[in-house]
Amino acid sequence: MSILPNYRFARLRFYAPMGVEAVIQTNDDVTGRWKAETARYYGDREKSLSERFANLQPDNKNIVAFTMRYGPLSGSPLTEQVFRFPIASWIRNQAEHNKFWRDLLHGVPDAYEPLPGSFLEIKNGWIDYRCPDLWTFMSLEMLTQQSKLRICSRPDCKHPYFFAQHGKERYCSVGCSNWSQSELKKRWHEKQRRKKQLMARSKSR
Fold it and tell me: Domain for residue 188, yes or no?
């Protein structure tokens, strides 16, 4: 007798409301407003939102551009028409997000409580979970693909957070993988050079 639940093959997906305008930087804050009609954001094909967020250089220009494209990290058009957040809080949230990423690599936490404002509905054969905000959406991206979370093994990688395509993947890109191969070749040649030096010294004695 199977102990698997009956809903194990349910078509479940999650999304966040998206659509903002008039996003500007005002002193140390970012302000804007939600569009009258927002779209459902289910994620991008080429790269997850959590990856984009984790690897973004947290300067003012990038934060404003991110908000113009995706919206604020918290808040929803269902509860507010305008939004405002300190740039410093966005940077703190990014640091917390990246810590959560690193924690998940070690298998913790084993529970997650979504924020108020979530909603379930049936749409075109799918069970759609509406996230209350982008923060919850990105957290679910990481939680649902925990086994694929990686941090690039290249020490000076500028975009170290990524989702692996296969289990043994250690580098985020072809460039970083090529760097690894180059480093291995350098070490091999250095090892061979030292061997030759030792052999030359032994022969001269």
Answer: no
Q: With respect to residue 153, please indicate whether it lies within any of the assigned structural domains.
A: yes
**Has this prediction a pTM greater than 0.85?**
no
Rounded CA-CA distance 8/61 in Å is 44
Query: Would 197 be classed as within a structural domain?
Result: no
pLDDT averaged per 10 residues in sequence order, the chain, 205 residues: 56 90 97 95 92 97 97 91 97 94 80 66 80 92 91 94 90 91 72 69 67
Structural domain boundaries enclosing 89: 12-172
Quick check: helix, strand or coil at residue 11? coil
- Residue 160 domain-assigned? yes
Read off the pLDDT of residues 175-201 as tens digits, 9 standing for 90 and up: 999 998 877 777 766 676 676 667 666
Say how many domains are in the chain. 1
**Which tokens in the block code for residue 99?**
């810590």
